[in-house]
Amino acid sequence: MILEAAVLSVRAGQSEEFQVAFREARRIIASMPGYQSCELGRCIERTDEFLLLVRWTSLDAHQIGFRQSPEYQEWKRLLHHFYEPFPTVSHYNRVDRD
Questions:
Q1: Does residue 38 contact residue 54 with C-beta atoms inside 8 Å?
Q2: Is 96 within the bounds of a domain?
């Protein structure tokens, strides 16, 4: 399992519109092979900042299967115009667990 993490800085005043668009975009990502789950959290201190966590079966499922798919173009259309600056995405392997 791979955990994708991205801090999403949304343009000031557009957080509500972003959340509406994300609900639609979630259906896209959830339909992709290798997708396991995702969650979106909103920062308490900075209300235009969100944390996106997505679990994938493999790095290739995200980097190749999703990002190189036609569905990714729709994901981009729905969400990418909200970001300022554009987020950095990182991937993590689990090393410890309770």
A1: yes
A2: no
